[in-house]
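Example record used in the benchmark description.
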Amino acid sequence: MREQEKSMATGRFGRYGFYLRQRPALLVLLSIITIAFFLAVTGLSRAHEAQRQALGNRWFNRGVADLNAKRYDAAVTEFRSALLYSQDDYSYQLNLAEALIGLKHTAEASAYLLNLWDREPENGLVNLELARIAVQRGEIDQAVRYYHDAVYAAWPRDQESNRRQARLELINLLLRIKDLGDAQGELIALAANVGEDPAQQDTIGDLFVRAGDYEHALGSYRIALRADRRNVAALAGAGHAAFQLGQYPLAQHYLQQAIAASPGDTQSAQLLQTVDMVLRMDPFRRQISAADRDKAVVDAFKSAGQRLNSCTLPVASSPGAGPPISLNDEWFAMKPHISMAELRRDPDLAEKAMDLVFRIERQSSIVCGTPAGADLALLLISKLHEGS
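Model output (structure tokens):
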């Protein structure tokens, strides 16, 4: 009996021993099968993902083509299709926002852009588009902030033109809201960035004029003229800027060239007429003979009298204790003495006469508005000699 039990136990352990001896091989086989299955699944997953990306890119590329062609409806559909394959793709969402802006769907575009801004607040294009939307909505403070962020964003090298465009739009906005100081600062930075580009400098010169910075405007126009001395717009602009700076000989030089290059430029012609009168009528200009000076004083005094006839001035208080005296009374009191002979006899009379002329022209410009012709020339001459 014991031998039988022993024999049965030996047979049982023999069978288990076979399985135990085969266990490492089975484990290796199962591991290989598992790895192969994992690799197959991974491969299928990657292939599926690659297919999704390919489909997304295909829709995206179609959308970009339609966006560039300003077919905004088609572009929106294609970008939405691309997002079905990659919902968080930054470029897909940004281009969709631009297409929506093209369709004037600014509310939806703004939602996408604000989400993108949260992810990348330094993105130049996102800030630029948000600035434009803020301008449309009349949100000026926000627009200025977004424009500033767009200007100082890290743009790719092939998109530097977008930085200049952002600054240009910011400048135009600042000029629109009459923030001339900040506009001038941005213009100075823009002028430095565009270098010697004549077309850009010509445009910047016009903007400097709008900002009231005639010194920098003249500098920009001169840079533009280095490339083309017959640039009509730059010649006219330089003449206007020099005129505003009171540099009348320089203004005359540029305006004469502008009219020679473009005879139909009536604005430059009118400005040149005023400049010529200023240079001709100023009795205190350099290298003028005594006779020409006296004649200029007589003519100026006569023009001031005619201005008094067309513009009634209030009676001013007398500087002394006497009764109030008007500029009209002063003019009539001095009139008998203003002649070529009297001016030759009394050299100081010219200054007294011109002092009265200047006071008449200044006061009448306040009461009756900016004059024209000889009176405008005399008013400008008075500003040249203020404090002298």
